[in-house]
Amino acid sequence: MNDSPTTSHQSRWAIDPVAAARMGTDELRQNFLIEKLFVLGEARFTYSHYDRMIVGGLVPGSEKLQLEPIRPTGTGSFLERRELIAVNIGGAGSIVADGERFEVGTRDMVYLGRGLNDVSFASDDGSAPAKFYILSAPAHASYPAMLLKIDQAKRLDLGTPETCNKRSIFQFIHPEAKVRTCQLVVGLTTFAPGSVWNTMPCHIHDRRMEAYLYFDLPETARVFHMMGEPSETRHLVVANEQAILSPGWSIHSGVGTASYAFIWAMAGDNVDYTDIDAVALADLR
Ligand SMILES: O=C[C@H](O)[C@@H](O)CC(=O)C(=O)O
Ligand SMILES: [Zn+2]
């Protein structure tokens, strides 16, 4: 649905695990996969009813793009009652929020707190546009806007080459970080050469939903993303720059046919990254 000439949204309802288990491929994809986020000159949002997380893509061309409200929030401005994190997966760009300017390089992110009103996104070079991946959740407090560079993130090295899951998790929001958020916990995961499995062994966390954006994957390659309750798994075949929605009851793990990176983001009842329920491989069905 169009909210303005450059802004549009779609809604995704919350699905329970019994209904999801009965779905075929197309229905699973319609509910849990977001196929097209990044379109030049457009802001495209998906309003999810899991924790009311909004997932979107915003690609400014030669002209800047304004952050405009979408119908499902019922508010006069996008951030009236929400917070937002924008991660740049494209060329260099900038964000101006109520007069404060942030230069946003590739893989940098910007936190924007509740109540900011006039927010615009721009690309330094319209022929190598910035691609802002947007995550937004309802917020109960207003925290300061901040630029978060990848080298300021907390790095967690996990996995081994033998199990093809050697990877680095960059946590942008963590207890010692300067940035404060109400609900959002966001980070980026990259792989050692030859490693292709993310989040395996896997986990669930019913108090927080999660969204993944797979990117830096060759156009012909795919990620097989695992979802479903641990006792009832399904998969989604995901292409470059597509996102998935993971309900609290679902595992979220993937294996690539080539190398890739991904951005993970959570919203829900707490911001404790370590509050997860590990799933034993022997319990997966
Ligand atoms: O709850 C945390 C998230 O699922 C991700 O941080 C997992 C991840 O990046 C990985 O293991 O590769
Ligand atoms: Zn998780």
UniProtKB/TrEMBL annotation:
Molecular function per GO: 4-deoxy-L-threo-5-hexosulose-uronate ketol-isomerase activity; zinc ion binding
Gene3D superfamilies, per database record: Jelly Rolls, pectin degrading enzyme 5-keto 4- deoxyuronate isomerase, domain 1
Record note on cofactor: Binds 1 zinc ion per subunit.
EC number(s) from the headed UniProt entry: 5.3.1.17
Protein's GO biological process: D-galacturonate catabolic process; D-glucuronate catabolic process; pectin catabolic process
Cofactor: Zn(2+)
Catalytic reactions on record: 5-dehydro-4-deoxy-D-glucuronate = 3-deoxy-D-glycero-2,5-hexodiulosonate
One Pfam family recorded for the sequence: KduI
Listed pathway(s): Glycan metabolism; pectin degradation; 2-dehydro-3-deoxy-D-gluconate from pectin: step 4/5
Entry keywords, A to Z: Isomerase, Metal-binding, Zinc
CDD domains: cupin_KduI_C, cupin_KduI_N
Reported function: Catalyzes the isomerization of 5-dehydro-4-deoxy-D-glucuronate to 3-deoxy-D-glycero-2,5-hexodiulosonate.
Family: Belongs to the KduI family.
UniProt protein name: 4-deoxy-L-threo-5-hexosulose-uronate ketol-isomerase
Species of provenance: Devosia insulae DS-56
Gene name of the encoded protein: kduI
